[in-house]
UniProtKB/TrEMBL annotation, chain A:
Keyword Ligase belongs to the record: no
Alphabetical UniProt keywords: 4Fe-4S, Iron, Iron-sulfur, Metal-binding
MF term (GO), any: 4 iron, 4 sulfur cluster binding
Record protein name field: Iron hydrogenase
Protein source organism: Pholiota conissans
Classification via PANTHER family: NITRATE, FORMATE, IRON DEHYDROGENASE
Family: Belongs to the NARF family.
Transmembrane segments: none
UniProtKB/TrEMBL annotation, chain B:
Species whose genome carries this gene: Pholiota conissans
Biological role stated in the UniProt entry: Essential component of the cytosolic iron-sulfur (Fe/S) protein assembly machinery. Required for the maturation of extramitochondrial Fe/S proteins.
Organismal lineage: Eukaryota, Fungi, Dikarya, Basidiomycota, Agaricomycotina
InterPro entries: Beta-prop_CAF1B_HIR1, CIAO1/Cia1, WD40/YVTN_repeat-like_dom_sf, WD40_PAC1, WD40_repeat_CS, WD40_repeat_dom_sf, WD40_rpt
Record keywords, A-Z: Chromatin regulator, Nucleus, Repeat, WD repeat
One GO process term, biological-process aspect: chromatin organization
Gene3D superfamilies on file: YVTN repeat-like/Quinoprotein amine dehydrogenase (2.130.10.10)
Predominant cellular place of this UniProt entry's protein: nucleus
Name of the protein: Probable cytosolic iron-sulfur protein assembly protein 1
Repeat (WD) residue spans along the chain: 15-56, 71-103, 127-168, 172-203
C-alpha cells in the first residue's frame, strides 16, 4: 500500500483513511499514516488463511492451538444479500423466472457453513447481540451524562458532558482525535459493537470454554476498513495475555473474495437455512456452547440505531406521553429528532448526522454552542481578535425551541451510514438507468442494501423479556458489580493525536 | 520596452511595506481599496483616489496610500485574499490551514457615509477544516458561496450565512495533488480548481445531492497555478464605458455569458478553454511568451478599442511569471459563422519586463471597477505591490 505516488513530494499524511472513506471509497489510495497503513495490511483475508492453516496443523491437545471464531456485522450480511439478489435479478429477467429474494438470515447460514466447513472456524456469530449490549450501555451512559449536565447547570462541578456523540464509527473517532480533540469529551465512551463482541468472545465465551483470551482467535467481518484501525487500538489490547479482543478484521469485500477464492458459491442454499433462528444445538454444540441470540433488529437506523434506542428509552420511561418529531435539515443524512412533552416543552433534541460535510457542521455547531474552541493554534489567536460586535449581534441566546442545543448526535463518517461503508461490496448489476451513472449509481445501490438490511419479515424487533434477562446475565457474568471492571469491559477512552506534519519547508 | 505594441504598461504607484514576499493582491469590487497579503502574515489595505479633468480629457492622476496593516493572527503565510462581491468582507487563505473572514468596523463619525475601510479590521470568523496549507479562496458572484482549496488536495464549498456563520456544503476530493487555485464563474454557480496534478476540475451542484466534478480539463504538462474566467459584459455598461478610455457607446453586441476560462501553468503557457456545450470546455488556444512558470492570470473587460473588428470583444488578459514579465493580450471571439472550437483571435498588446526587478511576479490582478479597468496590480518576491496603468502607445 503506497501512501503517495513515487516521486511526488508528499503532502502531510494528515488526511486519515476515514476522511477518504467517507466520500471516496478509495481507501487504499488515500494518504493515511504509514503506521496505520501497516496496521491495515496486517489484517487481510490471507492473514486469516495463514493463521487457520498454522492453527490446524497443531495437534488437538496442543496448548498453542486456539479456538477460531468469526463474527459478522449485520451490514455485511445485507451487502452480500443485496449483491446476490441483484445478480439473480439480472439473470432471471432473461429467463422470465421469479426468484425469491435472499435474506440476511439465509446469507448468515451460508456464510456459517462456509466458515465452519471450508475454513474450519469453530464458531460463527453475527454481532447483533453485542450491539444489543452496546445499546443498553450507551443509553445508560447518556443518562449518566444528562444527570451530570443537570447538576453542572445547578452550579455543581462537572465537565461539559452533553451533547453525547456516537462512538461506533472508527472513521469519526480517528478524525476527531486528529483534527478535533475538543470534541473528545463529548464522544460516548461506550465501546463499539465490534469491540464488545471482542470482549464477549475472548472473555465471556473464552471462560466458558476454559480458555484464556489468548486461547481464542477472533476474526470480525465489517463493512468498513477503519474497523481494522479500531481493533488495533491499544485500548483493546490485553497486556496480560498479549492478545487483542479482535485479532483480525476483514471487510465484506474481503470475505466475498475469500469465498470466491475457495470456490464457494454463496447463491447456493445450504440445508436448513430456512428453518429460522437457531434454537436446538447441533451435535457440535455441546453444553459449553454459549448460544447467542441472532440477527436482532434494532429499529431506527441501519448504522446501529444509537439515537433511536435513546429516544425509545426516554419515551418508555417517561411518565407523560412524549411526541417525536423529525426534521430533515439538508438531506436524509442530516435529520433532527425532537421529543416534546404534553406541555409542549422540548424534552430531548438529537440528530442523525452522516457524511463528512455534515460532520463538519456538527463539529462547528457543538463547538460554538458548548463554548469549546475548535481547531488549534492559529485558530485560537484569530479568535482572540473577534470583537464584541459579533457576540452582540447574536443576542443573548434565548433557549427557544429552534435554539435548543443537541443532547445527542448519531455521527457516522460515511454518507448513508454503515450500509455504505468503504468495505462493502460495490454496486452489482443494472441499477435502473440505460446508461450507468457513476454518480447516482452508488446512491441507488446504498438504498438497496438498506432495504435488504431491514428486509426480513416477521422478525421480533422489540427486546423481549428473555433477551433482556440474558443481556443482564451476560453483563453480570462479565463485570460483576465492580464498576471498574464494567469500565474495562464495556467502555473505552480517546486521546488527541498530534498530526504528523512533515517538516518540509513549504514554499508554495 | 517593446515599441511595436499598441499599449504600454505605465507605473502608477509602488506600495512597499511587507516584510517578506508579497503573494497576492485583490481590488475591492465596490470601493477604492486594495488588499495585499504576504508571507509576513499581514494583510495591507490601501486606499486610492483619482483626479481626472473631464473637460480637458487629461490623463488622470492617481494617489495611493496605505490605510492599515492587519496583523492577521494567522500563524503562517497569508497566501491569498478575496473580497466578497459586496466589498464589505475580505477572506484570507493561510498556510496555517485556516480561512479568516474580515470586516471593517464602521467609524462612528461617518455613520451616514460609506465604510471607507479606515476603521478597525476584525476577524469575524475563522473557517477550519483544511488539514494543511490553504492556497486560495474565492467568493461566488452572488457572494452566497465561498470556495477554498488546500495542499490537502481538497476543495471546500462553504455557504455564507449572516453574522459570520458558515456552513460546509461540500468537500470535494477530486485532485490527486495540492490544489493551487479556485475560481468561480462570473455569473453561474460553476467552480473551477487548478492543481499540482496538472489538471483543472469544474464543479456544479446536483440540487438533490452534493456538488460534483463534471469535467476535468487536461492539457497542461505541469502545475496549473492560476485561473481566470472571461468577464461578463452587460449592455448597460457598454454605454457608460471607461471615462478615460477611448470607448463610447458601441453598436456591437457583447458576449453576455462568459464562455472562456484561462489557465496559467508551470509549463510556461497559458491555455484558453472554450465552452463548446453547456457542460463542456475544450482547449482552443495555447499562449506562449513567458520563459518561466506562469504564476498568475487575470481577465477583465479592459478598454475596448475604438476601431471595430468583426466578432465580439472579450477584454484583456494579463499574465505574470517567474521570468519577471507581465504580458497583456486583447481577445476577440471569432466570427459567429466559424466552427464552435475556433479559437478566439488574440493579440499581444502590451509587455513589461522586470516588473519587480529581479524578483518573481507572484500575482497580477485587474481592477474590476468601472472606470478603472485599465489599472493592474502586481505583487512580487520583493514584498512590493505595484500598480500599473495600460495606456495607448503614442
Amino acid at each position: 500500500m503506497t501512501a503517495w505516488p513515487a516521486g511526488e513530494p508528499p503532502s502531510p499524511p494528515a488526511l486519515s483513511s476515514c476522511f477518504l472513506e467517507l466520500t471516496q471509497h478509495t481507501h487504499s489510495s488515500g494518504c493515511i499514516t504509514s503506521a496505520e497503513s501497516v496496521l491495515i495490511t496486517l489484517q487481510s483475508h490471507t492473514e486469516v488463511l495463514t493463521f487457520l492453516a498454522a492453527n490446524a496443523a497443531l495437534s488437538r491437545g496442543d496448548a498453542q492451538r486456539r479456538i477460531p471464531v468469526i463474527s459478522i456485522a449485520p451490514q455485511s450480511l445485507a451487502s452480500l444479500a443485496a449483491a446476490l439478489n441483484a445478480s439473480a435479478a439480472s439473470s432471471s429477467s432473461r429467463k422470465q423466472g421469479v426468484v425469491a429474494e435472499v435474506t440476511s438470515r439465509e446469507v448468515l447460514r451460508r456464510v456459517q457453513a462456509f466458515c465452519a466447513d471450508v475454513l474450519g472456524f469453530e464458531y460463527v456469530f453475527d454481532t447483533t447481540f453485542a450491539r444489543h449490549l452496546v445499546l443498553r450501555e450507551h443509553t445508560a451512559e447518556f443518562l449518566e451524562r444528562r444527570k451530570a449536565s443537570a447538576s453542572a447547570k445547578e452550579g455543581g462541578e462537572g465537565e461539559s458532558s452533553l451533547p453525547m456523540l456516537a462512538s461506533a464509527c472508527p472513521g469519526w473517532i480517528c478524525y476527531a482525535e486528529k483534527a478535533h480533540p475538543e470534541m473528545l469529551p463529548f464522544i460516548s465512551r461506550t465501546k463499539s459493537p465490534q469491540q464488545v463482541m471482542g470482549t464477549l468472545v475472548k472473555s465471556w465465551m473464552g471462560s466458558k470454554w476454559g480458555r484464556t483470551p489468548d486461547g481464542v482467535y477472533h476474526v470480525s467481518v465489517m463493512p468498513c476498513y477503519d474497523k481494522k484501525l479500531e481493533a488495533s487500538r491499544k485500548d483493546f489490547y490485553d497486556e496480560v495475555y498479549a492478545t487483542r479482543d479482535v485479532d483480525c478484521v476483514i471487510t465484506t469485500g474481503e470475505l466475498e473474495l475469500l469465498m470466491r477464492e475457495k470456490g464457494w458459491d454463496l447463491s447456493m442454499p445450504v440445508p436448513g437455512e430456512l428453518d429460522g433462528t437457531r434454537c436446538s444445538p447441533s451435535d457440535k454444540e455441546i453444553a459449553t456452547q454459549p448460544e447467542l441470540p441472532e440477527l436482532l433488529q434494532h429499529p431506527g437506523t441501519s448504522s446501529g440505531s444509537y439515537l433511536h434506542s435513546i429516544i425509545e428509552h426516554l419515551k418508555a420511561s417517561s411518565e407523560t406521553r412524549l411526541t417525536l418529531s423529525v426534521k430533515m435539515i439538508r438531506n436524509g443524512d442530516y435529520e433532527e429528532y425532537t421529543l416534546t412533552g404534553s406541555d409542549g416543552g422540548t424534552v430531548f433534541k438529537g440528530a442523525k448526522c452522516y457524511g463528512f460535510r455534515n460532520l463538519q457542521n456538527i463539529v462547528r455547531k457543538v463547538g460554538r454552542e458548548r463554548g469549546v474552541r475548535t481547531g488549534a493554534g492559529a485558530a485560537g489567536r484569530l479568535g482572540g481578535r473577534v470583537g464584541g460586535r459579533r457576540n452582540a449581534l447574536r443576542g443573548g441566546g434565548g433557549a427557544d425551541e429552534e435554539g435548543r442545543k443537541y443532547d445527542y448526535v448519531e455521527v457516522m463518517a460515511c454518507p448513508g451510514g454503515c450500509v455504505n461503508g468503504g468495505g462493502q461490496l460495490k454496486a452489482v448489476g443494472d441499477t435502473g438507468g440505460q446508461e450507468r451513472d457513476w454518480k447516482w449509481g452508488d446512491k441507488e445501490w446504498t438504498k438497496r442494501v438498506e432495504e435488504t438490511y431491514w428486509g426480513e419479515q416477521n422478525v421480533e424487533t422489540r427486546p423481549t423479556k428473555t433477551l433482556e434477562e440474558l443481556a443482564e446475565r451476560v453483563v453480570e457474568e462479565l463485570c460483576g458489580s465492580d464498576v471498574s471492571v464494567r469500565q474495562r469491559m464495556l467502555r473505552t477512552g480517546y486521546r488527541a493525536v498530534e498530526s504528523e506534519v512533515v517538516g518540509l519547508a513549504v514554499k508554495w | 520596452m517593446n515599441i511595436d505594441l499598441p499599449y504600454t504598461i505605465q507605473p502608477i504607484s509602488e506600495l512597499p511595506g511587507h516584510e517578506d514576499r508579497a503573494w497576492h493582491v485583490a481590488w475591492n469590487p465596490t470601493k477604492p481599496l486594495l488588499a495585499s497579503c504576504s508571507a509576513d502574515k499581514t494583510v495591507r489595505i490601501y486606499a486610492y483616489s483619482s483626479t481626472s479633468n473631464e473637460e480637458s480629457k487629461s490623463i488622470p492622476t492617481y494617489a495611493f496610500k496605505t490605510l492599515t496593516s492587519i496583523p492577521t493572527g494567522h500563524a503562517k503565510t497569508v497566501r491569498a485574499v478575496a473580497w466578497a462581491p459586496s466589498g464589505e468582507t475580505l477572506a484570507t487563505a493561510s498556510f496555517d490551514s485556516n480561512i479568516g473572514i474580515w470586516e471593517c468596523e464602521k467609524v462612528d463619525d461617518m455613520e451616514n457615509g460609506e465604510n471607507d475601510g479606515s476603521g478597525e479590521w476584525e476577524c469575524i470568523s475563522t473557517l477550519e477544516g483544511h488539514e494543511t496549507e490553504c492556497k486560495s479562496v474565492a467568493y461566488s458572484s452572488t457572494g452566497t458561496l465561498l470556495a477554498s482549496c488546500s495542499r490537502d488536495k481538497t476543495v471546500w464549498i462553504w455557504e455564507v450565512h449572516p453574522d459570520g456563520e458558515f456552513e460546509t456544503i461540500s468537500v470535494l476530493m477530486e485532485h490527486s495533488q495540492d490544489v493551487k487555485c479556485v475560481a468561480w464563474h462570473p455569473s453561474e454557480e460553476i467552480l473551477a480548481s487548478a492543481s499540482y496534478d496538472d489538471t483543472i476540475k469544474l464543479y456544479i451542484e446536483d440540487p438533490s445531492d452534493d456538488w460534483f466534478c463534471f469535467s476535468t480539463l487536461s492539457g497542461h504538462t505541469s502545475t496549473v497555478w492560476s485561473l481566470a474566467w472571461s468577464p461578463v459584459f452587460d449592455s448597460s455598461e457598454e454605454c457608460t464605458s471607461s471615462t478615460h478610455g477611448s470607448g463610447g457607446p458601441h453598436s456591437h453586441s457583447h458576449a453576455t455569458t462568459a464562455s472562456y476560462l484561462a489557465s496559467a501553468s508551470d509549463d510556461t503557457t497559458i491555455r484558453i478553454w472554450k465552452r463548446i456545450a453547456e457542460h463542456k470546455w475544450e482547449c482552443v488556444l495555447v499562449l506562449g511568451g513567458h520563459e518561466r512558470s506562469v504564476y498568475s492570470v487575470s481577465w477583465c473587460r479592459g478598454v475596448r478599442p475604438a476601431f471595430t473588428e468583426e466578432g465580439t470583444y472579450l477584454g484583456w488578459l494579463a499574465s505574470a511569471s517567474g521570468d519577471g514579465k507581465v504580458l497583456v493580450w486583447e481577445l476577440w471571439d471569432p466570427p459567429s459563422s466559424s466552427a464552435i472550437s475556433t479559437p478566439p483571435r488574440h493579440k499581444l498588446i502590451a509587455s513589461l519586463s522586470s516588473a519587480h526587478g529581479v524578483h518573481d511576479v507572484n500575482s497580477v490582478v485587474w481592477n474590476p471597477r468601472s472606470g478603472f479597468e485599465d489599472l493592474l496590480a502586481t505583487t512580487g518576491d520583493d514584498g512590493c505591490t505595484r500598480v500599473w496603468r495600460i495606456t495607448p502607445s503614442s
